[in-house]
Specification:
The protein has 6 helices and 2 strands. The protein has 158 residues and is mainly alpha-helical. The protein has a domain of 109 residues: Arc Repressor Mutant, subunit A. The protein has a two-stranded antiparallel ribbon with strand order 1-2. β1 and β2 form a beta hairpin. α2 packs across α3, α2 crosses α4 and α3 packs across α4. The longest helix has 21 residues. The radius of gyration is 20 Å and the shape is globular. It starts with 17 loop residues before the first helix and ends in a 7-residue tail after the last helix. GO terms for molecular function: DNA-binding transcription factor activity. It comes from Brachybacterium phenoliresistens. InterPro entries: HTH-type_Bedaq_tolerance, HTH_MarR-typ, WH-like_DNA-bd_sf, WH_DNA-bd_sf. This is MarR family transcriptional regulator.
Length: 158
Amino acid sequence: MTSPTSTPPSDAQDPDDPLLAQLGDAVVTLARALQHGVHERDDVVPLTGTEVMVLRWVDRHPGATPSSTAEGVGLRRSNLSAAVRGLVAKGMLTREADPADSRSVHLAPTDRARESSRAIRAHWGRELAARLPDLTAADREVLARAVRLLDRDEGSAP
């Protein structure tokens, strides 16, 4: 039962919720810490932010077309084309002709992209393990739920 001064729970999130603002701040701080030094590694190919978004989308949606990728990451087609050209030039992405429709192509990450991604994820794992050395099983469950919550709209937005 709620007290007369308490606010009943609502399904709508308050955009001014201080917890959400703190979460955003923590995510930005953590992202900077995770990126620090990652591009100086010999086993990581330096990419622009747009290239990272495109490569992540293609990796998670094998055989994606340029149109579906542009829509999926929220880019204009011209910006996507520039990112794809950059990724192809860096050996991170291939453009494969559609055997059923010669006008269409599908995008695929290369082995080099997968190796670079593995190196980045290993770096992130080491950084997070150092920042969170005493995680309990309960803490891990909370983090797993948070990851699911934060990733649930990944298919529809960058």
